[in-house]
Amino acid sequence: MLATSTRIALADPESVLRPLCAHLVEHEAVISEQEGATVIVLDASRARIGLSAAALDVTVEAPDVAALQEMKRAIASHVIEFAPKGAAPEMRWVGDGTGPALPADFRVLAVTGVETITPHMRRIRFRGENLARFDKIDALHVRLFIPPEGVTAPSWPMVGDDGLLLQPPAESRPIVRKYTIREIDSAAGTLAVDFVLHEDAGPGSAFAMRAKTGDLVGMGGPGGRGLKTAERYVFLADETGLPAAARMLENLPPEAVGQAFFEVANAGEEQPLRHPAGIAVTWLHRGDAAPGSLPLLQEAFAALDWQAEGPATYLWAAMEHGGFREIRAAARGKLRPERDQHLVVSYWRNGATDEEHVAAKKAEAAKA
């Protein structure tokens, strides 16, 4: 195991440690108290945090540099997030994996092809090296570093002494957005990402509309939660969640049973999906209504038969924030904690930029 440590001076360290732990629990971390210290286990990494009157003493252990960097970044970024405004603490890690370097989970990808799946869905194919870590069905999401239009020599991120990413120069700084790997062949060094095309195109959609062979992007990850083993599956998603749900459908066992509901504009936005015969796929059309404005997915969820003694179910849902909140609340009344699993997530928010959406989610998590 590799190890690194830091001492973080804080006026009230306990007020930072509590929300930090609560947030990491949302990402499936296991928190415990051992010998007077807080222990955080996340995947294969382990952090031990000692609490004193004026500091947090943190030691991180992990099996490789990528996992070590990820746990350092998780702790350092949330310490800064939850520290009082205007009192950003200083951190300098010592031990393994320290010093400025490219993130160990970072790859440079080159565009090899562009394919139009539907009028508003475009698949970009990439080639890269050493992609095995990204070939996971239980961690579907990656961070794409999209260079500004016209920049042919982008400045990629570097990890600083504090464990956080250093900001590249503004003129060549990539814009970071989260996407789902739709297809991957790590042995061949290829993968594909599906982009939803919007009229008011954000950075990802704009890149997808202009992408051509040879264009470069950066990729970090993977992260997020994906497919779980269950006796029954329920998927609900709009266009933004469709790539992730489609990849999970393709990786279900042949005997899998369940239902999948996908909201799209019209029949022209439906796409062929590979899935077991026991999974019933239903397309929900909103017509001319704006995305996220109709309760189609909420109504589909409400109509589901949830038998008290029925099979153990995995519910996966991703959509606009309003629908997410309604389905998450409804799921609490239907899911059986002792049998069912679920992941209900908000992928976007009406009237908000991606940065505003992420900030709002973090604020809600901190409040909770």
> What separation lies between the terminal Cα atoms?
34 Å
Radius of gyration: 21 Å
> SSE string, helix = H, strand = E?
EHEEEEHEEEEEEEEHEEHEEHEHEH
**Classification by helices and strands:** alpha+beta
Instruction: Note the main sheet.
Output: 6 strands, antiparallel
Helix content: 10-25%
Percent range for β-strand residues: 35-45%
**CATH superfamily of the largest domain, called what?**
Nucleotide-binding domain of ferredoxin-NADP reductase (FNR) module
Assign the CATH architecture of the largest domain.
3-Layer(aba) Sandwich
Could you say what the CATH topology of the largest domain is called? Rossmann fold
Features:
single chain, 368 residues, Elongation Factor Tu (Ef-tu), domain 3, Rossmann fold, 3 domains, 6-stranded antiparallel sheet, 7 helices
What is the topology?
Layout: E1 2-9, H1 13-26, E2 30-34, E3 37-42, E4 45-51, E5 55-62, H2 65-82, E6 94-95, E7 106-118, E8 121-127, E9 141-146, E10 158-159, E11 165-166, E12 175-185, E13 190-196, H3 203-210, E14 216-223, E15 232-237, H4 242-250, E16 257-264, E17 278-285, H5 296-302, E18 313-320, H6 321-334, E19 341-348, H7 354-367
Helix pairs in contact: 1-2, 1-7, 5-6
Please sum up the structure shown:
23% of the residues lie in helices and 35% in strands. It has seven helices and 19 strands.
